[in-house]
Design brief:
This protein is of the alpha/beta class. It has a single domain, classed as Rossmann fold, CATH 3.40.50. It contains 9 helices and 11 strands. The protein has a 9-stranded mixed beta sheet with strand order 2-1-3-4-11-10-9-6-7, sandwiched between helices. Strands 5-8 form a two-stranded antiparallel ribbon. Helix 1 packs across helix 3. The longest helix has 18 residues. The radius of gyration is 17 Å and the shape is globular.
Length: 267
Amino acid sequence: MPSRRLFLTIAAVIGSGLLGFIIGDRHDEPPIVTPPPKVATPERPLIGIASLDQDTYIRAVRDQGGIPVVLPNTDGSVEMIDDYLEALDGLIMPGGLDIPPSEYGEKPHSTVSVLSDDRYKFEKALITKWIQKSDKPLLGICLGSQWINVVHGGTLIQDIPSEAGGNHRNVNHPISLEPDSRLGKIFGSRGFEVNSNHHQAVKKPGDGLRIVATSPDGIIEATESTDPNRFLIGVQWHPERLIETDPNQAKLFNAFIEAAKKRAAVN
């Protein structure tokens, strides 16, 4: 285990410094350069970030004490997924384009813009194994939240404006949190304002998930595992982008990293 953790740490340095790991569906961002992280310990857990396309995720993990490791979806390869499951202490599934609606038994709406084949194949395999074969912490953001729901057998609203009414793209709006939920306890609040940049959302929650946040128009803004012992949360907004102006959003990443630390201490 230590050798694999060291390997992933070194890989994060090389990839972030030389290649930037811009491997998502966007290609217009400047290369991401991060300082070399220290070797992972239970106090500095290894956090995988799938298909990164913005460095805000790296900053959020790093600033809360984790070591970010960007996982490449190059060629859609799934060969290292078992190694990732063993070596990583937590996983973030970030935002991006749309999951093919065939994954939840529907034909695509005209507004759907699906993920690249490489990212789709890699992320489907990664999150499916992470959920089914691991009990390690998982945080899904925007698309990542939708992945969590689909892998649990849930469905999505393919286009909020035409199917549910309203607009959730490039706006801010309030959300209400379930106070007895893990998410509600993390924030210690019944609600706050979030950013919103999505046209899809959870429609039918998957098995083993509960709704823990909604917007005023009824759109599901967050889900979490019904297992009280598992840190598995999906949020529809982008807390990593809000941290600079709303430090309250760092609470989610702090709780995630703390859960990863506890899991790392078990290894």
